[in-house]
Fold this protein.
Amino acid sequence: MEVIICPDARRVGEVGGAKVAGLARQAGPSVVLGAATGSSPLGTYATLAGLVLRGELDLSGASVFALDEYVGLPPDHPESYHAVIDRTVTVPLGLDPARVHVPDGARAGLSTAGVRYEDTIKAAGGVDVQILGIGSNGHIGFNEPASSLASRTRVKTLTEQTRLDNRRFFASLDEVPVRCVTQGLGTILDARHAVLVASGAGKAEAVAAMVEGPVTAMCPASVLQLHQHATVIVDEDAASLLRHADYYRSVQATLLNEQGAGY
Ligand code: F6R
């Protein structure tokens, strides 16, 4: 696992965007990106949007697969992940909406939503670069603690903690959906690269458990320790509980010295 510690959240977005852009260029014009929603990746998306705007990155042939969707929110609800991905990813990155996919959270057909989504990812050739955030309880996607480390896309129930964390996007806690369709941990592990971004002290415990704790379903993000190409980009606050922070800094300083910024 590569751990990059940045001075602040703004820099996390710049480094995250540069890292994803580099991997996208390597993958070629029909790169397949995996996209998280929430606050964490917004800076990364803004950096990518800037590169696209300046003609330094062309994502017009890219496909995108969102990680998750709430069950029961119509796609045109402003907080449905269909709408959020459209607003924060599809439009600013100049993507073809026909190639942007979000799990189907409609109650009708819910029992097949996971398999249908897995089939669509497979048909696209799999995800090249998966962009991730992390929940304060260590979830990635909406794989809450105790999720199977081998899980595939399916319906999950959100924890009270996650609903409280996401309450800020809704008028009241009652409006925060209780269930979701999320890519599984096994699905996320299949991505060829994983880039996780996190900032703020509220993520410090989860980040330490993910990077330095045991691989355990109680911290679902710890499954990334089994991924061959996982990059974790955090600010000082989110890194504050990492015991080996000095080592991660020295690795980055060595790389910078030898190759210039590796991202
Ligand atoms: C949502 C997702 C979640 C979020 C996590 C952190 O698509 O994948 O795992 O990344 O809940 O959310 P923020 O970034 O809002 O703190």
Summary: The chain has eight helices and ten strands. The pocket of fructose -6-phosphate is lined by residues 36-40, 67-68, 133-135, 139-141 (CB under 6 Å). The chain has one domain: 2-259. Strands lie at 2-6, 32-35, 63-66, 68-70, 100-101, 129-132, 154-157, 179-182, 193-198, 230-235.
